[in-house]
Amino acid sequence: MNGISPWAAAAAKELAEMEHVLFEHSTGGVIFKVCLSSDSVWIAAELPNGGNIAFRPVFSPGPSLEVSRFRTNDSGIDIWLSSDAGMFETNIKFEHEDEPVLRYTTSLKPAKDLYVPFWPRDILATTKNGKVENTAGQIHASQWGTRSGFIYMSMTRPKSSSVLYLQNLTALNDYCQQTKTSLGDSVGGSWPELGFALPPANEKPLQSGNKVIINDAFVTFATPFPETEPEMISRYLDMLARVYRFLPLPETSYQHWPEILEKGLKDLIDSPGCWTQVGGHQYFNAYVSDYTTPPEIMVQLAVLLPLLDYVEWSGRDLDVMKTVKEGLPAFYDKKIGTITRWLPAAEGKLEGEEEQKQPGVMDSWYLHHPLLNLSRLALKGDKVCEKLFLDSLEYAIKVARHFKYQWPVFYKMDTLEVIKEETAEGMGGEKDVAGIYAHVMLQAWELTKERRYLNEAEKAAKTLQGVGFQIFYQANNTAFASGALLRLYKITKNEMYLNLSYMCLAGIFRNTQLWDCNYGYGKNFPTFFALFPLNDAPYTAVYEEQEVFCALHDYLKHAEGIEVLPSVRLLIAEYIRYLVDRAVYYYPTMLPKDMLEEKPKTGEVDPKLWIALEDLQNGWLKSGTVGQEVYGAGNAFGILPRHYLQVPGEEFLIYIDYPTSGFTARKNQNIHFRVLGDQRLTCRMMIVKTGTTKLPHFEVSGSGTKDVLKAKNTKNGNIEFTLNGNQQINVRWNK
Question: 659-668 — which CB contacts under 8 Å span 24+ positions?
Fold first, then answer.
């Protein structure tokens, strides 16, 4: 038996007794009835197998709610209502897919200045006779903080459908700006009262006469009930992609990354705040002007690898890479037999103000991330990095076996004593470390061809079964895990690993922000499809986003020739498209000075420096509170090689904001490549001038059509095209 609130009890009684139906619609096995009660408009949904769930697009306290007029059409109903609170308008629409998508959008024009001390949630699970306490359901995942305003659940009594509810929080910006409220944790609840509730407005009222949107919900359904974890995960990805296609997606802008990269490279090399010196070697600081923390190997490699990507793309020779490489062997501890997090020669600077800031203490993921990057350098022929990598593997295996492939948060490197076991009480340790460990072992197997490393990868991967959405501890490591599991599937043909890779991706997309925060300081930068670095982080972070971006590119490369879920291809491509637009706003040079934290936690923030901030915060909070992140400098160096295609002998680059594959440039002014993603969505292609001469005439066509795509000339002399995803593109030009 479920306890319920008085509002739910009253609503359930009215729902059971309502007879007057304004509109009825049936699609995908769900029967929808739009009804009016004394204080609400309800959309009652009769689900297969006896399930019932009701959605409330309109609520007005008190019994004064009346319909002024309504208008029906084939796809839904529009209703205008009046009450003591003001005038409401709600638009209810049903999209026709294999499974239905319901959307309801509601606006309020207050009759008086209104405070909103409380608002009930807009979903109520019921039985046909209104017994909400006799229903049961499982909430698989829901909003945390300012992530997407969603809830994903399945009805278990009666055993019926899964439901994905997503509130388009972008539409609520005006409400938050007026009332100075936040949309964090606005979607949630517990069974049977769920969904969205307006953030309480106790300090500033809604202004009379100003129309604001107070609800914009998308809901989709799927049957039958998911009986297994893989079914639950794949259904989430499919339902999210289905709803995504109907969202009002924000426009993106072209960012000129070649110029951004040059500015960032200059400041990275020349700024004294980015460097420290120990034992005759120069090392990157983690944060600008942070001279109190010892050098970390993760920081050195997190910058070095994106620099390598850029050098391979551009053909340039960067002395800074030699500087970084020369300092790497000093991180090896011969006594323990592994690389260490902190530079041993400088560990004495640690003051222990945090659990991990103690000599000899390891954060579990910190061991494997540098090993992964060392392995990448080793596979490219770097013998110094190969030795550091191979010499550290036995220690990594010893740790993995000691903890039975379930790593704590912090442990002592010499004794393996656990310093901190769980991320939070009852939540276990860093669950995605098993995935990045598997990645490291796969790299070792590829480098040495020794079967035991592949066996280790499989042992670790199998421990991830049953973890579900809790797989996500840190975004970049979860993304690396997804790629490792996909590789294991390709090697072994064991479908379990493919399903586990989907589980990692579901964890990533569950931690994104599918809305644009345009209130407070949020007006100064886009946030749509931003990714949070930790499962409980209150801000988005440049380093984790940049590495997830690269890892998802790699995932699509490994997925070539494999039938992965179409929803996976759609969501990955769209995340990448929005990151390429958003990422430039991590640089403080792109933001108003008044929104930057003056006293960050670590180091200092220099508003003129093209070094990214670690953190972009919720709209009412200043950003850069953690610091200016040197190890996030890989941002531009990761984007440029993946999104600018070079044409030998020509004074232009081909830029595409979607991931691509199979690029070939022929001598007869003919280019072919494949745009990835979903054909129902579009992306931007730009012919970018690199010289002084006028661009030639281009003809661009896509697979399946002989029509030449329309070109648009930009103010700076570039040429822009709109492409659909998942098609072959042909580009011709005449000199």
Answer: 659/552, 659/553, 659/556, 659/572, 659/573, 659/576, 661/556, 661/557, 661/560
